[in-house]
Design a protein that fits this description.
mainly beta, homodimer, globular
């Protein structure tokens, strides 16, 4: 498995990750069973490392400026099934099983508000 | 529809979006049919506006620093079924139908490389 994840030069996939100027990388969480996109949060290296080694999702809270074990307070953790990086190594995708509502509002997913053309600032005032 | 998308003060959902200091907001694209997460890119206000009004996904290319009609060159556009914002209004989710491989590598999704604990810098050297 380790060998499969190395390129011919022996560089590990994680070495090429593009953390931004704040040391963060966006991470999408998707429900492994329903396919629903649950949330987007940010990880630093330590959060990613803990996610890969613990099997539960860890993030870095930009507002609190600290490592954040998702569900630490609410009890609603995300059990990780698999972790992926994108083609240009600047986004993470976690596929996992949430043990309860992911959103702090109590919704199952953070994406519960739809936008339509009606939400655009009106370009044709009557 | 417009009324449903307004809060009691008449503020449109889009007014509350949290664009970052560069005027961008991350946007996840998900395949409406397979549920696969396809890519993460960034939108400015104009890209979001064009996405909502044209029915195809537009982004802002950070590398080229210009509006980017996804599929403009490759022909592989994303036909938009619905657009969502998250609870704290700092991420967009586009659910749509890609007309071809989304990734510039030719993969159907940009997330085709799995990360495992084996990819971590080894903390227990032998």
């Amino acid at each position: 498995m380790g060998l499969l994840n190395k390129n011919p030069k022996g560089v590990k996939l994680i070495d090429n990750l593009q953390f931004d100027e704040k040391g963060l990388i966006p991470a999408i969480a998707q429900d492994a069973d329903t396919g629903e996109v649950l949330m987007l949060a940010y990880m630093n290296e330590e959060a990613l490392s803990r996610t890969l080694s613990s099997g539960e999702a860890w993030f870095y809270s930009r507002s609190r400026q600290e490592l954040w074990h998702k569900g630490e307070t609410s009890g609603n953790v995300i059990k990780v099934r698999s972790v992926w990086k994108d083609c240009d190594s600047d986004t993470i995708l976690i596929i996992g099983q949430p043990t309860g509502p992911v959103c702090h509002t109590g919704n199952k997913t953070c994406f519960f508000q739809q936008l339509t053309e009606q939400d655009l600032p009106s370009s044709h005032p009557k």
